[in-house]
Amino acid sequence: MLINLSELLSNEGDSRTYEVTLDMNEFKCSAGVYPIVEAKPFTLEASNAGKRKVSIHADVHIALAVPCDRCLEDVRTDIDFTIDRVIIADVSDSEGIEVEDQSFMDGHDLDIDKLVYPEIIFNLPAKTLCRPDCQGLCPRCGANLNHGECGCDRSSLDPRMSVIQDIFNNRKEV
Ligand SMILES: [Zn+2]
Ligand SMILES: [Zn+2]
Q1: What InterPro entries does this protein's entry cite (predicted)?
Q2: Tens digits of residue pLDDT in 15-44
């Protein structure tokens, strides 16, 4: 969703609130693509702080489906964050002013998805487990061991060896 800030920018001291929604329904990052399972509209407060500056504030809540690090099943991951920053509406006009990354601004349009994206990355948990004692996948057959025992003999199998074992088995089949 794009918010046009032109009107707000024409009145110094003016402030407005916008009900905004995300356009994206999945979150793409280097680690993968996570479906967005919940993203309620949220309120963006914006006020004209003079000299083409706009201070913005929003409390955002979204939920992503992130695969468990061990068994790869989707885990609902709730992410809450607050955006509180001053943006400069027209970077081309802001000579001499230190401008941080503002790729979410296109002229006077504020792109909500681009504004929120880095915040999601920053707030993603480093580790995702479906439950603390997740049993993971069987290194031999790939079965999800949370759903029960698959019957494989894993007694002598070092998990680090499973890759080598796979290569060996593939060679035998050829
Ligand atoms: Zn798991
Ligand atoms: Zn197995």
Answers
A1: YceD (IPR003772)
A2: 999 999 999 999 999 889 999 999 999 999
